[in-house]
Specification:
Blueprint: H1 18-26, H2 31-37, H3 45-52, H4 56-68, E1 72-75, E2 78-81, H5 83-103
Antiparallel strand pairs: 1-2
């Protein structure tokens, strides 16, 4: 499955509207978990694999997609959230608060 891009059909959208493309990317198995695990310092592949409790093939696929989307990057010390990834993390906080209240 190709990395979703704005203007290109995505799951739930033939037009590729930005929100639908974002939801397609974030809704892929393990994507949110990878982003969550990268909320702090840079993390190596092996440490990320263990923390996200996933297999190497799936992790490689998600890392590739998230890098292509500009949400994460990689240096010698490991994978980390880009500025856009940190902005996404901040944008998800209200959704997390809503979900917690919703469960009550």
């Amino acid at each position: 499955m190709a990395t979703p891009k704005v203007g290109t059909a995505a799951r739930g959208s033939k037009t590729g509207r930005p929100i639908m493309v974002a939801l397609d990317l974030l809704g892929r198995r393990g994507a949110l978990r990878v982003l969550w695990e990268l909320r702090g310092e840079a993390v190596t592949f092996r440490a990320l694999q263990e923390a996200a409790d996933t297999n190497p093939s799936l992790l490689n696929t998600r890392l590739k997609e998230l890098r292509e989307a500009g949400l994460i990057d990689h240096t010698g010390s490991g994978y980390f959230l880009t500025e856009s990834g940190r902005d996404l993390h901040a944008a998800l906080r209200p959704l997390s608060a809503w979900a917690t209240a919703w469960l009550r």
